[in-house]
Amino acid sequence: MNSLLLVGLGNPGKEYENTRHNAGSDFVRMLCDKYGVSLEKEKLVNGCYAKLNIHDCSVILCIPDTFMNESGLSVSKAKKFFQVENHEILIVHDELDLENGCIRLKNSGGHGGHNGLRNIIDHLNGDSSFKRIRIGIGHPGKEKDIISYVLNKASESERMNMEDKMRNSLQLIESLVINGWEKTIMKLHSSEEKKDES
Prior knowledge:
Blueprint: E1 3-8, H1 23-35, E2 40-42, E3 47-54, E4 57-64, H2 71-82, E5 89-95, E6 103-106, H3 115-123, E7 131-136, H4 146-150, H5 156-169, H6 171-179, H7 181-197
Parallel strand pairs: 1-4, 1-5, 5-7
Antiparallel strand pairs: 2-3, 3-4, 6-7
């Protein structure tokens, strides 16, 4: 792997900080802290970014300045700006269909009702071959409650659990670069199974 564009989805602005919908951008900020890099604003990508090298792979960490529903604009511009291919794009996003704090990797696929992913696919001309890190936020139970649920903050205990799980999953990026996608998925899922058994 020569390049990896890692984009954390969320909504900009103080009012959306630490909300469930911002799990993706929170994950990227944690990565910045882990590797000691700072995000810089770049108008040409409609967002901010930081660069680092992991085992000769150029890893670009990016957070869009656009709102979630317009994430595709930033992703498509970043793709062009950093000259990466769709299979070198990794989107980090919140996932209603996973329990709070559960982290899963996905190789490609549809948007599953996620408006950020939907917009990215549209801006990539219908190509959904980019990779994803899905961060579980749980489900409110009723469809009518979803919008307010994702735009609100989790309880303190839920938030702490999510942050712990995200922090423990930061090493996934290094594993992806060194070991590749399939081996990293197998390692992640086997470790999760062991936790479930204990």
